[in-house]
Amino acid sequence: MEGVIVAYASLIIALSIVWVAYERFSFRAVSLSIPLLASFSSLMPESIPVIIVSSITSYLAGELVYRKFLFYGMRMFFLQSIISSVTVLIMTFNSLCIEYLLISTLPGLLSYDIHTSREPELTVTFSAIFFTLQLSVTSILVNFLKV
Amino acid sequence: MRGPPWRIADTRISVQGTRGKTSLSISLHSEVVYRKKTSFCKVTGTLPLLCIGKDVKILRRRGPTRLYENLFSVPHSDYCVLENQGVSPYTMRVFNDLFVKPQIVAVTNVRLDHVEEMGRTREKIARSIASSFGKAEIVFSGETNDHLNDIMSKKAKKLVRVGPAHPHLPGAEIPVLLNEILEFLGLGSVNIDAYLEAIKKKLRWKEINGIVYFDASKVNDPDSATLLVRWLGESPFIFIQLRRDRPGRTWAFLKMIRERWVDYSKVAVAGEWSYEFSKRVGEMNLPDSCEGVDLLLSEVRRSGSPLFITGNRRGSLVRCLLPRLGVKDEIPTLIGKSGDGVLSLP
Fold first, then answer.
1. Nearest-CA distance from B46 to chain A in Å?
2. Which of A103, A108, B316, B317 has the most C-beta neighbours closer than 10 Å?
3. Do A72 and B98 touch (CB under 8 A)?
4. Distance of alpha carbon B154 from its chain centroid, rounded?
5. Is domain B204-324 in CATH 3.90.190.20, yes or no?
6. Which of A72, A112, A119 has the most B C-beta neighbours within 10 Å, making it the best mutation to test the interface with B?
7. Strand pairing of B284-285 and B49-52?
8. What architecture does CATH give domain B2-197?
9. What are B85-124's pLDDT values in tens digits?
10. Structural domain boundaries of chain B?
11. pTM for the predicted model, two decimal places
12. ipTM value greater than 0.90
């Protein structure tokens, strides 16, 4: 229970940091899905490879469809959300649970944020850094409370 | 052949910027066709048009505007000139990246419009515009601010700064851009002075039934509105039509009035948030309907000032007002009288 409260606090603080960075410095290079994905991963570390693989899969599939079939905008968003969900389902088929269901579209949102970003490389880099930092801090606190 | 422009035209020009895209696109297309080259051109806005050679067609839209309307069934052409209709950095980039793949990008100017998507400062808007340049070989910029050009040049392979032919005339950058692009394409030059005179003839107060007015309802940003008011002279009665789906424009025009960028005798607003707007500036709020037109015109007559209409062209009051003033959308004539040196200047 304490772990969940820490994860909630981590989510709220992380979202606030992203918001302040946007308002004060017009910094938009972190996807909005990252705070939730990082908080979730701190409680379920086994989800990290699932998140990474489904993000990469939905991004690459999206870029292919973008170039070949002129998909853009909301079509791209729906496509990447669906690919993300399907990838999560396939990867977790042997251990299905409601938690994965609830976050299954988030890697798709991350891919979409990167796709629509003015500087995709920067968005990937900063999102990865933010995810790692938030995950590290939250995991330490979660495990500290368990001990 | 139906497909995106990059499959249909050999040389592709994407026209971007805040104001003057339609004018530059139509003028450029006209000059190219006059020089016996095949070309097609598409412009957007309130009257979307597809020009194939000398023929002009109104594009009928069904449903919301989508970039897919840039898939054409037109003959293969030497050139195409396309107005970049994207209103966000993303859609501007998609337009260039997927549909046009332009070799040449023309940026008319950088002003405060579509601030919700592009940014609240001209620097951010410049960055937004520049993020769509992609692999274009050359960018021609009609923007006069060096700092904004420096921002855009970071994303351009080559950026050519085109100075205005007249320091105060709104739209003076258009004929100079036109000339530079034609010379770059090896298609000769134009009579810039003739174009400037044509612009001056359009930028005058008009009169109907005792009301002196200027229709700048297509001028959706306060920077351009300010330039126009200064050029026209007088302290006008400013009417601003607001739109629900353009809160950024409302914010930008509020800034213009609060900071008094121009002298004016009175301001009236109509549309979404008009009550809040009028309260903040202590000016007049009108009902957004045809009833508001009568109130507006009687106030204008009482003030004795000329009426300057700006903000948006979509809105109930302005839709009733413009026909009363005899204003209507006209399809531009391509390839006008070649003798006076100006082929087309919508």
1. 22
2. A108
3. yes
4. 25
5. yes
6. A72
7. unpaired
8. 3-Layer(aba) Sandwich (3.40)
9. 888 999 999 999 999 999 999 999 999 888 788 888 899 9
10. 2-197, 204-324
11. 0.88
12. no
